[in-house]
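Write out a record, fold above all:
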Amino acid sequence: MIKNILVIASLMLVFGSYAMAQSDEAAVLDNALKACQAKTAANDEEKPCLETALDVCVEKDDTAGWGARCATRAEQLWDKELNKVYKELQGRLTLKERSVLISSQRSWILYRNAEFKLIDSMYSFEKGTMNISFNAHARKGVVMKRALALKHYLEGYSPDTMAK
């Protein structure tokens, strides 16, 4: 009983501070992202600007809660990028290719949800506060990988060279 109360109290503390500081880490991450994008308009760096911005955000404060908030914000931005690239790719594909992409994306969403369940199980908050950060970074990684894969397809796609 006391253990449950302590877990609940620590979660309330973490998520309470999360709500208050959410705009702080969002501003740090967003500003670092804009700075990176301004430096390289072509963004042909090996490391995506969003990951560079995440590093800047995480380095600002070494607490688990701050790192988790940075990673959660990065996940949201990767999801936004994923959806943008997905829509752009859809617009370039033939009807048949678009149908396959839609099916692939639906399957990926099922995969993502299953991965999130696994991540939530492995990096359960009850196992310690560092797991909050591990959880957020792992979830971000799942979304980032799909966004980068779709971006790769988009950049390499040419209707003239692809089989129809």
